[in-house]
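QA checklist item 7 of 12: single-chain prediction sanity check.
[x] sequence parsed
[x] length recorded as 787
[x] structure emitted
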Amino acid sequence: MADLPHIRISASRSDSYGSPRRGNTAPAPARDRLTHASYVGNLLEGLENEIHDRNLTGGLVLAFNGPGLEDEATRLGDKRTGNEVLAISPLETVLVGSRGDLSALQKKVFEYQTEETPKGRPKHEQLVARIETARIASVLDLSFGEIDDSEIDNGAVYFVELWLGFDTEANSDRARFAAFLESAEADQDLRHISTYKGTDRDVHLVAIRGSVLLGLPVRMPYLAEIHLPPMVRLREVAGQIELSKGLPPVLVPLQLTVAVAVHDTGLDHLHPLLAPVVLGTDSAVPNGSPLDWDGHGTRMAGLAVYGDLANQVLDSSLVPAAALIAVEYLEPGERGDVLWAERTQLSVEIAEDLGRDHRVVHSISMGAPNPREHEATSWSTAIDRAAWNNGEGRLIVVAAGNIPPAPSSSQYPSENLASTLSQPAQAWNAVTVGGVTELSTLSPRDVQLGASTPLAAPGQLSPFTSVGPARIWPSKPDVVAEAGNTAPDGSNPNPGLIGLSVLTTAARTIGSDLTRANATSAATAITANALARIWATYPDFRPATIRGLLIHSSRPTPSVVSQLDPADLRRSIGHGSFNWSRAALSSESRPVMVYEGSLQPKIINFDKSVTRQVVLVQLPFPASVLRDLGSEPAELQVTLSYFVEPSESERRSKYAGVRLRWDMQGPNETPEEFAARINALAREEDHVTHTSSYNWNLGADGRSRSSVQHDWMEGPAESFAGDRLIAVYPVLGWWDRRKGFEQRTVDFSLVASLEIFSDVDIYAPISAALDIDLDVEIDAEIEIETV
């Protein structure tokens, strides 16, 4: 069948929206009211006495613990007495910056003991009944378990990130911090290295003496977190050198509209395959050089521009997919003294300047261990902020991370499944890439070197790749790409073999034009290449749409499905292996429909009431054609892609300014029934939901833990007959709770496809039906209370 462009959908309508879902806050622990009030009161009194005795009324950080206390954390704050909730750690510790005045909390404890709500429950029960411990915070608390106070050497010097939770009006706090830095530097107890300014946190990288580090919790009421900076490493094992015997010429298209920016170790910019497409090179490293000091950057550049060169070098010429930008991002001898959030921000800005009028895909093939088990770090937050790009979006591809390949087949894939993602792979807005492999044929030279049986069968998990844990926020990785294979002999994993690695460009200091690469470094650069190809096909599509199309084309290989348990599948391969041509092209029997829109999650009306917005998009599936096909199988796929605005002070699902979800009108559902099922404002007072959507593979909750949400299902063609509505609606985030964020909109892209597995044209009737009327009346009040 002919390759066809995707079908654009422009018609949509919006309605006022009210979520039918209700929060399920766990009940407070059952307490003997008088006993617990006395216990918490004594706890706070003892804490207040300690603050007074140690003369800490100038400010300190307090730590509170208790079952479910993180859900009630905001009630621990009180602006009048100067208590501000700073952070909630993964250890379920609530950190509160305090001036030492606990009177507001003591009053709540007294009212819990003596007063009742209109429903007859103790006042403030949800807060007070949860409090079990209250203490002056330690470095262990502020570092979320990364740094144990007992192991800090008073005389040693440590590199740490100080996350400061300044109130927007607390200029005195900023002045106090500046004075602290000046005093500590004068005493040679601290050296300030660099600063990254986020939405609601300033992150300072300092070298600090252990004795001063230990005292930070009682010197800074605005110190929200302390963390160790990441020790960044490359995400690739260098492969064997290929001795080139002449390279084909490079035929550069008249106009390359897309560039890939490789943030790495620099570039051999005179390489004959790369020089014709280099837009520019620079360094984000202080006093650095864009010349490749390792060779890794040049290897990644070849994959980003051409993909795997293994078959292409036999062609009469090479056609690059994109122009090339190279920024030195990692310097030799990384010592942990880099604030990677700041480095990322600078490197992206440099690349965009070099890209001029090109659309830029950013590729980062390196990472570091994440001691916080996939919680946001300053580095991953900076990636998210760069990709958010003030709401316009930006394409950034990062590596999931590697493990040392197993020397024995008995350790595969169990070692992979026991691994963890590296930072910044947990970034919501990045395209996070893990690894599979199709490479399973040894070259003659591999056999001469003693290699025998490849470890992974074609389509299985790459022996190099790390995987994500189950049910994290967000769900990662997003996709997988070729990361190479190994042929272990029981003691040696034999990585980098010719037949089991991809072919790419080499920094010619090694004496060759070509070399081999593997691991998630290579997979990341290959994915950047695919994104560039899709974007070159649709240069006016948003970044969110390009990302959505890539993931929409992804599916697990049959081999990896049979290799892994269902519980391990998604955390290992995300949505699967992509196909860039399938991402970029439709056919008569598989039309792909694209809608680019926006919605306003919070609307403040003239009377101060609040409404929200749902957007409805109609898919014009041809009824007669699909009914004629009867029980013949068809596959429906839907992908929602958008970018979240990150917050340095929030965690997990609350990390995003606003989240979105989608749902679709089911096969036996009228438009009115669908609207009532998803929207509380479209319901009659006595409404009972009796309808449902299709039987999706992941389901609404399973697919919604990311900023790109893909789901699919297979069914008889006749079950898809007739027009179908898709709704996109907001889930409340931190935008909703903060002043100055009202009236904002969030852009999103919706991709949908219906595939018929026979030679039937449904593309033409869908194209012809796109002027349909989307009028579905909702007769309901549109006001809801502010949440």
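[x] summary fact logged: Confidence is low (pLDDT under 50) at residues 776-787.
[ ] second reviewer sign-off
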